[in-house]
Amino acid sequence: MSAEFDKFVDIVKEVRMKCPWDKEQTHASLRHSFLEEAYEVIESIEKNDMTEFTKELGDILLHVVLQAAIAEEEHEFTLNDVLREISEKLVRRHPHVFGDAVIGTSAEQKKQWEQVKLTEGRVSIIDGVPQHLPSLQRAQRLQEKASQIGFDWKSKEEVWKKVEEELAEFREAADTQDAKKIEDEFGDLLFTLVNYARFIHVHPEDALRGTTNKFVRRFRHIEAELKKAGKDIHAASLEEMDLLWDEAKALER
Fold first, then answer.
1. What are the backbone dihedrals phi and psi of residue 197, each rounded to the nearest 5 degrees, phi first?
2. Reduced to 3 states, what is the DSSP secondary structure of residue 208?
3. What tens digit of pLDDT does each residue of 65-74 get?
4. 2-83 is classed CATH 1.10.287.1080
5. CA distances from 3 to 9, 36, 212 (A)
6. DSSP assignment of 135-194
7. Are 99 and 116 in contact (CB under 8 A)?
8. Separation of alpha carbons 122 and 107, rounded Å
């Protein structure tokens, strides 16, 4: 594997030197495509497509090595620095694996992980959650971090009462003309629903993505069936579309 990895690094560096497009790239110019590649990895996992998964992991590795190559050119850091940093971090954050600490459960490990992070220079318990994460995922991560020090609900029933309270406040706000208040109350409702999802072991980002994909499948069924019948979707009635929607649901069962 080492020889294959070294060969790959050499290829990336040669591409960086000789390809006009690659030569122009910077840390900043690559950030959006890096994010795109990460989402493609997630998509291949959800499709359980191991061939595509293999390729997408390669694309992620390409970004890591290319970013390190750019940094090396600018005398910022090297790929060896990246490897050393992650190796040291893994050892430091797993004292139960590489030391004498005793950890019995994954929950205990997560708590210890957060404690170790505070010894690494972080000031707040909730530091380290990227602002650019999808909002549902960021909300969940912040709640998880707060829960590690006991700032949490005691039961899902308590959270559900809060959901009902926030829903009532949102409905009240929705009857006003105050756009800011409506947005704030809707945000509070979503945040509380994320909390409830956490208690019932549902990942809200995954759940919403799954539902969105389901909507796409069913809507495309409507489009396809109307086209097959020679009908313009813009002229179709809601009743026609609802029937086809129900048909799409039945086909998924």
1. -60, -40
2. helix
3. 999 999 999 9
4. yes
5. 10, 29, 43
6. HHHHHHHHHHHHHTTT-S-S-HHHHHHHHHHHHHHHHHHHTSS-HHHHHHHHHHHHHHHH
7. no
8. 21
Q: Give CA–CA dist 171/31, Å, rounded.
A: 39
**Phi, psi of 128, deg, nearest 5:** 95, 0
For residue 127, give both structure tokens.
Answer: 């530091």
pLDDT digits (tens, 9 = 90+) for 141-162: 999 999 988 899 999 999 999 9
What CATH superfamily is the domain 135-202?
A: MazG-like (1.10.287.1080)
Summarised one tens digit per residue, pLDDT across range 117-143 is: 777 777 888 888 988 899 999 999 999
Q: Which two tokens stand for residue 227?
A: 């086209």
CA distance to 2, 62, 73, per residue, from 80 (Å): 13, 15, 14
3-class secondary-structure state, position 131:
coil
